[in-house]
Amino acid sequence: MNVIEVKDLKRYFTIYKRPPGITGIFKSMIKPKRIIKKAVDGISFNVTKGEIVGILGPNGAGKSTTIKMLTGILVPTEGIVRVNGREPFKNRIKNAMEIGVVFGQRTQLWWNLPLRESFDLIRTIYKIPTEIYNKNYKIFSEILELDRFIDTPVRQLSLGQRMRAEIGASLLHNPKIVFFDEPTIGLDVVAKQRIREFIKRVNEKSNVTVILTTHDMGDIEKLCDRIIIIDNGKIIYDGSINKIKEIYAKERVLVVDFEIEPVDFELTMGRVIKEEGTRKHILFNRDECSAPELVNYLSAKYSIKDFMLKETDIEHIIGHIYEHKFK
Ligand SMILES: Nc1ncnc2c1ncn2[C@@H]1O[C@H](COP(=O)(O)OP(=O)(O)O)[C@@H](O)[C@H]1O
Ligand SMILES: [Mg+2]
């Protein structure tokens, strides 16, 4: 069952620009140039219930604009967007009851109120039954350790604490879908882990659909079944992480520890990319040779103590994809 349907979705912005170098009185005399910015330029995808989808792409790719259309904050210029079968911008209140939203850069909590009171307000606004509220609060506070700062005004929370609070708050009313825009931006490793664990757990326990945008490959690898890569307002990849690894990661690194540093070291396949004493990092292409072939070749000529095949680095692959802009 599709909980999200997006078809040929577009959002253009009109920007007015004056030619550079114009100052003072001339400014008001010269008409600014009208530029159409195609922030989202015809994207299509569906999401089924319970998926965790990561939307990634470089800065300015159109990720936040997409989330804003999905959550009803922005009206599309063209195309179809349906969330839980409804057009989000036309049914904002109904839609809000069924979704949870967190924008990492902006708070949805009440800045001057203790967190507890923000939570109470959310409970009232969403008319959350006491039983559900108590149950959710108990689970959330356990994983996110909210009790430590529940009586602190939001403005005094650290970024990590605030994000934990925001994410917990967005799920109090048992939404069917949550949208997180950069939920781990600026957080330390421990806070990131806690948030990822929490998202994973809520997804597994309650089958909540999760859509998140991120720059963080850790978020992607730990959380997402599927990634959608956006660049320049267009989707350039939509699929599993494993598939992308398979297609684009033909290269592997074999790290070899030799008993002694080999003299007159020679290689007929692959190439050394790093050397640390008796250890060498050898890069090879899977199409050209296999790891066993390489190991056989090396062990026939030199005495090997140990070796390790390195996992493909998703960060490396994604960087490669941005550079090549494949379609
Ligand atoms: N309200 C707006 N007015 C004009 N341009 C905008 C507006 N919002 C976003 N943009 C532009 O649209 C593009 C996509 O922005 P955004 O969706 O925020 O990207 P991302 O979240 O992927 O970094 C950027 O070039 C941005 O400058
Ligand atoms: Mg953004």
Key structural traits:
binds magnesium ion, 13 strands, 11 helices, binds adenosine-5'-diphosphate, 327 residues, Rossmann fold, alpha/beta, four-stranded antiparallel beta sheet, single chain
CATH class of the largest domain: Alpha Beta
Q: Report strand order across the widest sheet.
A: 5-6-7-3-8-9
Query: How many discrete structural domains?
Result: 2
Bound molecules: adenosine-5'-diphosphate, magnesium ion
Number of helices: 11
User: Beta-sheet strand percentage?
Assistant: 25-35%
CATH superfamily of the largest domain: P-loop containing nucleotide triphosphate hydrolases
* Major beta-sheet overview: 6 strands, mixed
Overall pLDDT level:
89
What characteristic shape results from the CA principal axes? globular
Measured on Cα atoms, how large is the radius of gyration? 25 Å
Give the helix proportion (percent range): 25-40%
Number of E-type strands: 13
Termini gap? 27 Å
- Low-confidence spans: none
Which CATH-level-2 architecture of the largest domain?
Answer: 3-Layer(aba) Sandwich
H/E series? EHEEHEHEHHHEHEHEEHEEEHEH
